[in-house]
Amino acid sequence: MQFPITTKASSFADVRRKLSALVLPDFWAAIEALQPFHGGDRAHTSPLEVLRWLSNLDKHRAVHIVGRIYFDLAPVVIRSAAPIKVVEERRHEGPIDGDNKAMLFLKFECPQGNVPIDVVPTFAFSPSIQISDDPIEYRALACAMEV
């Protein structure tokens, strides 16, 4: 028994030559209609391809690690008695490779006088799992489990 899953039409053509004579044409048409390569550039995120990739990872490697993926929930709120000008801002959203990763970098123009500045970022994180090697892509664990 085999259910081929491919992200490239050319790979599926090779499988078709080998296997299509073994099943009814209508059944083969259904298998072909479900192939991830019909998704174009997003073929690697189709549910069947994610399942194939995770299955192969489990069969050929060690335990698959669940990581963390961070995302920005709201704009940064800056409170100050004096106007504050942000001259540089960098945000990180996505997988985190370890501790002490900067999620937000803000560079302010120095205000006149000794002015307190209250910065309120709103970030969250979710458990994540890698779903593809090419390209490398992660998905929130809850979304991957729905698939």
Structure explained in plain terms:
- With 147 residues, this protein is α+β, with helices and mostly antiparallel strands.
- It folds into 2 domains: 1-53, no CATH class; 67-129, no CATH class.
- The protein is 27% helix and 33% strand.
- The protein is built from 4 helices and 6 strands.
- The protein has helices at residues 9-19, 25-33, 47-60, 141-146, and strands at residues 67-80, 86-91, 94-95, 104-108, 117-133, 136-140.
- It has a 4-stranded antiparallel beta sheet with strand order 3-1-5-6.
- Strand 5 and strand 6 form a beta hairpin.
- It is elongated.
- The chain starts with 8 loop residues before the first helix and ends with a helix.
Topology:
Layout: H1 9-19, H2 25-33, H3 47-60, E1 67-80, E2 86-91, E3 94-95, E4 104-108, E5 117-133, E6 136-140, H4 141-146
Determine the oligomeric state from the structure: single chain
Return residue spans where pLDDT drops below 50 for at least 5 consecutive residues: none
What's the count of strands? 6
The fraction of residues assigned to DSSP E strands is 25-35%
N-to-C order of helices and strands: HHHEEEEEEH
Q: Would you tell me the structural class of the helices and strands?
A: alpha+beta
Strand order of the largest sheet: 3-1-5-6
Distance between the termini: 23 Å
Number of structural units classed as domains: 2
Major sheet, described briefly?
A: 4 strands, antiparallel
User: Quick one: overall form?
Assistant: elongated
Radius of gyration: 23 Å
Average pLDDT rating: 81
Compute the number of helices.
Answer: 4
How helical, in percent, are the residues?
25-40%
